[in-house]
Design a protein that fits this description.
507 residues; mainly beta; 16-stranded mixed beta sheet
Length: 507
């Protein structure tokens, strides 16, 4: 203010813009002149009116509403194209429209025991400029009362307490009477996951209203729908109390079965490996097409060859498979092809609808707050999780994966475009039946495990994987699904879950 005194609280208000017009395609007439033509030519129709044609006993303070077969051009719905008359005498009022609905509200209450005629003229058009084929006319007769009864919700879909709801569901409510369309918006009809609002749109039509989420809902998640007392009927009676209900979405489908051909492989690399220090690999290794270890060809031997003097330690009986050295009938190219199949299977395209992580960096040292995976909520149940940024995932501190007592509990993490990184000394803890063999990380580019990281789960990376000094992994590290796929070790241990020489608890 001029006196320098600030507002005590923020003052907030909202408004909604009208729907954009559809594109109009030109049509050319003879002589080269151009006239606009609708981009689609289907004429709108009236599919519902309240009151209905022939209704009697209509409340004197009712508004008259019409629902069309498609979204209409708001500018064409006014007191010229939408009229109400008693005989030949026009009734004064106003017209508002939203989406597929339009409402005529009389300025004064109607007269008792009187017949009225409503008309939608051919001046009403859809957003492509298509007019009604003919005027739509209907009549109703009033009663003798003013409507003071508040509307109620009589049916919802999904039902309150429903489980296994499809993630692409709409959330529908049916009222005890027709509602004022402008009173049903994303301010009065909300859907939330916890405290987080779900983006979407609201479409009212008569006694029904539909909330359509912008994106698919998350798997295995409880949502709360609320219709507030801002929702009103056509007589402007608000609901007596908010109506609230909950439902839970379906569980994520299990990821495709691991192609058996990659089961025994602890390491896969399309770009060869680089090693410095005492690295232990418990499981088979595939090198294809680059079969180098520290820039030295591993040759035909079933090991890492000379490897520049720094070969990783490999157990007797574990294989190093290359284009020149197959694993029995299995070639290295077949293993890499199976890796690509699995990488695609657990991608956002193969497994859509994952729960969006609340922070780009998850774990006890991750982003602040109690959103999914953040520092205040770093214990995760089974499910499919996708990067908060749609790109990369970082892990800092401790990330706990809780199987809920299910030995088959599956976790899939998707960093669909970019990287997976862990901070120094980051840890992943498995509890209540969770197993490293059932944890999968889809990485769109490269993965980097920081120094001292204690990692659990299988990483499938498009490109390279690097491990910092003394980082360990219980899980397959498979690089080069669709990229260069080089692999870097710095005194690490990598184990196939359940391998005879894997550390205790690596299963």
């Amino acid at each position: 203010s001029l006196a320098g005194i600030a507002l005590e609280n923020d003052y907030v208000w909202t408004f909604t813009t009208e729907d954009p017009p559809l594109a109009i395609a030109p049509s050319t007439t003879s002589g080269g002149s151009s006239t606009p033509a609708p981009s689609e030519t289907t004429r709108p129709t009236v599919i519902l009116t309240v009151p209905a044609n022939g209704d009697v006993g209509v409340a004197l303070n009712t508004a008259v509403t019409v629902t069309f077969s498609e979204t209409m051009n708001r500018a064409t719905l006014n007191t010229t194209s939408f009229t109400l008359k008693q005989g030949l005498v026009p009734v004064a009022g106003s017209v508002v429209s939203v989406g597929v609905s339009a409402v005529f509200t009389p300025t004064l209450p109607l007269t008792a025991s009187t017949t009225y005629t409503a008309t939608i003229s051919t001046g009403a058009t859809d957003r492509s400029g298509n007019r009604l084929a003919a005027p739509y006319v209907w009549s109703f007769t009033t009663g003798a009362i003013i409507d003071i009864i508040p509307p109620t919700v009589i049916l919802t879909s999904p039902l309150d307490g429903a489980t296994g709801v499809a993630i692409n569901t709409t959330v529908d409510a049916t009222f005890s009477e027709a509602m004022a369309p402008l009173s049903l918006t994303t301010l009065t009809y909300t859907l939330k996951q916890g405290l987080v609002a779900v983006g979407g749109s609201v479409l009212p039509a008569g006694a029904n209203v539909v909330f359509t989420p912008t994106l698919d809902l998350a798997y295995s998640t409880t949502y709360t729908a609320t219709i507030t007392t801002g929702a009103e009927d056509l007589a402007n009676n608000p609901m007596a109390a908010p109506y609230v209900w909950n439902f839970t979405t379906q569980a994520a489908p299990p990821p495709p079965v691991v192609p058996g051909i990659i089961d025994p492989y602890a390491i896969a690399s399309a770009g060869g490996i680089t090693n410095a220090g005492a690295t232990q690999i418990n499981g088979d290794v595939v090198l294809d097409p680059n079969r180098n270890c520290n820039a030295v060809d591993v040759g035909l031997a079933d090991d890492f060859g000379l490897c520049g003097g720094f070969a990783p330690t490999h157990n007797a009986g574990d294989l190093v498979v290359t284009p020149l050295h197959p694993a029995g009938a299995t070639t290295s190219a077949q293993v890499m092809a199976a890796l690509l199949v699995k990488w695609n299977d657990i991608s956002t395209a193969g497994m859509p609808g994952g729960t969006v992580l609340g922070c780009g960096t998850i774990g006890s040292g991750g982003g602040a707050g109690a959103l999914i995976g953040c520092a205040g909520n770093f214990t995760l149940p089974p499910g499919v999780y996708v990067s908060a940024t749609g790109s990369s995932i970082g892990v800092t501190g401790n990330l706990i994966l809780d199987g809920g007592g299910d030995a088959n509990a599956t976790f899939v993490f998707q960093a669909p475009v970019s990287t997976l990184t862990t901070a120094p000394n980051a840890t992943i803890t498995l509890q209540n039946g969770a197993k490293a063999s059932n944890v999968w990380w889809h990485v769109g580019s490269s993965a980097t495990l920081g120094n001292g990281t204690d990692f659990y789960g299988n990483i499938l990376a498009s490109a390279s994987i690097s491990m910092g000094t003394s980082a360990t992994s219980c899980g397959r590290l498979l690089s080069g699904a669709s990229g260069a796929g080089a692999f870097t070790f710095l005194a690490n241990t990598v184990s196939v879950p359940g391998h005879a020489f894997a550390p205790a608890g690596c299963n």
